Amino acid sequence: MAGLRGRTLELGPGVTFLVGENGSGKSTLVEAVATAAGFNAEGGSRNFRFATRASESALGEALTLVRAPGKERSTFFLRAETFYNVATEIENLGIELDAYGGVSPHERSHGQSFLDLLTHRFHPRGLYLLDEPEAALSTQGQLAALARIDELTRAGSQFLIATHSPILLALPGARILEIDDGGGLHTVPYDDALPVRAYRGFLADPERMLRNLLG
């Protein structure tokens, strides 16, 4: 990403959101931070070491992470597109399922398994990297996720989240970084974030928007 070359990106405590159009690089950046921090590229904790299809970018190798003193109590990298593979690995490894709601994620709907993860596997004072967690969640599910992320943040956890969800972006106190067309990163207020503007524009006058889109 051109916007990161030779640059220091400070991720403060609490929640940092990444927003941008498809292909802007937000998921690539979350993945790069994850691999640079020692996570498996397809997701899971640092103990997961499987590969279904290696497709990660080399950006993680170019990043230098500087961490504050202290050790996280818990860590996890949630990648919406490969969580099925993580669920399979959980079964293959015979991991204790209490941390995932008492059942294999394969026994729950996609959205339910995401919320089980947030509720049972994520703990205070953790480090969590999430790539488009809203992909499996209903509106109510996103609200439940927002409440849980807020609870964990108040308990000392740190999140880096790539998202298109205006609901998640409404989390009080979160920092929103938008990736522009040139790959640059800019802090934006909630009202100016791309997903918020797009949803508001549609909901304000859906008929006009549809006329423009559909002729």
TrEMBL record:
A Pfam family per the record: AAA_21
Entry keyword annotation includes Lipid biosynthesis: no
Residue span(s) of domain AAA+ ATPase: 12-183
Location relative to the cell: Cell membrane
InterPro entries in the cross-refs: AAA+_ATPase (IPR003593), ATPase_AAA_core (IPR003959), P-loop_NTPase (IPR027417), Rad50/SbcC_AAA (IPR038729), Siderophore_ABC-ATPase (IPR051535)
Keywords: Cell membrane, Ion transport, Iron, Iron transport, Membrane, Transport
Domain of life of the native organism: Bacteria
Membrane topology, as annotated: Peripheral membrane protein
SUPFAM superfamilies for this protein: P-loop containing nucleoside triphosphate hydrolases (SSF52540)
Name of the protein described by the UniProt record: AAA family ATPase
